[in-house]
């Protein structure tokens, strides 16, 4: 088995799985019917992408591994998502800010992944980018609405950005598997996306009349499987059914 | 939901295929036209029902008053000659 490729696929897919679970858990709790459905749609888009990645990963792993095994039966430290996507839905501003900070990255990432020499990854990227392009539009619009909205919405979204900002730098860290995969022209060299990312984010924040946080200190660890305390709770929800009724199917 | 107090109502029209007309699909709440379009996309076209969306704020629609239904519509009911039902159609003409 090509362990580096396997890990690399998981590191992409896990971001979508965990963020998809976060957004999906909001079903029925959105601030309005329309926004509620929008969050659920984003969640379903992400889960769709996750399935393609996990099916590919399962094939690489062999041993009759299925996409469900990968999604539901790993332990917390085996998930390789960035810390940003597992952060909780403290309020709607946090939901939108988290989505915005991830979507901006996700779009740039998929644009680059389209050029991967791995044809499966390139095909998944090509298919996903239209969805993510809409996510980005949705979350950027809401950043402007909340930032340039009322005083309360402005304060809440500024607080969300300030808190979540410390998780943005990790998006551009490379693991050992990443570095090997970049050399083989399979992986995206995320370090090259960093400037473009922060410029795009700053532009939207300015339009939203928000301040760009100046924090120089950043959190990291997710890509190595070291997570914040929030992931365990999320996984207990996500994995409950497969753990309680092993091999159950709908 | 306090937002509902402030967000106006919009009517949504969706064209399901090129060549067909836009049909009224329903209504929704949104703060402005841009949000109305995005919400319409999420609420009404998520199962790929459409290729084009129109939204119009409900207040811009002028509707007939049901109380006037008598004078508006009843006079047409006893004028059967306005329907071309007195012609014998040749068999070759279908879908009439």
Furnish the topology, listing elements before pairings.
The complex is a heterodimer of chains A (250) and B (96).
Chain A lengths: L2 H22 L8 H29 L5 H6 L10 H4 L5 H22 L5 H29 L3 H14 L11 H8 L10 H14 L22 H15 L6
Chain B lengths: L2 H4 L2 E7 L7 E7 L3 H12 L7 E6 L11 H9 L19
Antiparallel strand pairs in B: 1-2, 1-3
Write the H/E string of chain A, N to C.
HHHHHHHHHH
What name is given to the CATH topology of chain A?
Answer: Ferritin
The structure class of chain B reads: alpha+beta
Any idea what the CATH superfamily of the domain at 3-63 in chain B is called?
Answer: Phenylacetic acid degradation B
Largest sheet of chain A at a glance? none
| Class of secondary structure makeup of chain A | mainly alpha
* Distance between the amino and carboxyl termini of chain A: 30 Å
Which CATH class of chain A is shown?
Mainly Alpha
Helix content of chain B: 25-40%
Quaternary: heterodimer
Q: Would you identify the CATH architecture of chain A?
A: Up-down Bundle
Major β-sheet annotation of chain B: 3 strands, antiparallel
Number of strands of chain B: 3
* CATH superfamily annotation of chain A: Ferritin, core subunit, four-helix bundle
Distance between the termini of chain B: 50 Å
Number of helices of chain B: 3
How much is the average pLDDT of chain B? 85
Radius of gyration of chain B: 20 Å
What is the string of helix and strand elements of chain B?
HEEHEH
CATH architecture of the domain at 3-63 in chain B: Roll
The radius of gyration over CA of chain A amounts to 18 Å
């Amino acid at each position: 088995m090509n362990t580096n490729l396997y890990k690399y696929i998981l590191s992409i897919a896990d971001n979508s799985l965990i963020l998809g679970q976060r957004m999906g858990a909001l079903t029925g709790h959105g601030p309005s019917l329309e926004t509620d459905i929008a969050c659920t749609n984003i969640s379903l888009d992400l889960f769709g992408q996750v399935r393609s990645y996990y099916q590919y990963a399962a094939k690489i792993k062999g041993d009759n591994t299925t996409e469900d095994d990968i999604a539901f039966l790993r332990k917390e430290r085996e998930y390789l998502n960035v810390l940003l996507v597992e952060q909780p839905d403290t309020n709607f501003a946090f939901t939108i800010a988290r989505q915005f900070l991830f979507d901006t990255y996700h779009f740039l990432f998929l644009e680059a992944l389209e050029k991967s020499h791995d044809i499966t990854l390139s095909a998944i990227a090509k298919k996903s980018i239209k969805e993510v392009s809409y996510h980005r539009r949705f979350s950027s619009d809401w950043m402007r609405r909340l930032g340039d909205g009322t005083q309360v919405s402005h304060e809440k979204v500024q607080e969300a950005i300030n808190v979540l900002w410390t998780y943005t730098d990790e998006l551009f860290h490379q693991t050992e598997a990443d570095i090997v995969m970049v050399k083989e022209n399979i992986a995206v060299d995320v370090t090259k996306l960093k400037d473009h990312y922060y410029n795009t984010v700053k532009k939207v924040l300015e339009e939203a009349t928000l301040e760009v946080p100046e924090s120089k200190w950043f959190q990291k660890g997710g890509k190595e499987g070291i997570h914040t305390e929030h992931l365990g709770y999320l996984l207990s929800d996500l994995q409950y059914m497969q753990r309680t009724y092993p091999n159950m199917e709908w | 939901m306090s937002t509902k107090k402030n967000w106006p109502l919009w009517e949504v029209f969706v064209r399901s295929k090129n060549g067909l007309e836009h049909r009224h699909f329903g209504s929704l709440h949104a703060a402005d036209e841009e949000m109305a379009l995005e919400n319409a996309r999420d609420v009404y076209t998520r199962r790929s029902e459409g290729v084009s969306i129109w939204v119009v704020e409900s207040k811009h629609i002028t509707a007939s008053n049901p109380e006037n239904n008598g004078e508006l519509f009843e006079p047409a009911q006893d004028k059967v000659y306005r329907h071309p039902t007195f012609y014998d159609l040749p068999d070759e003409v279908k879908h009439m």
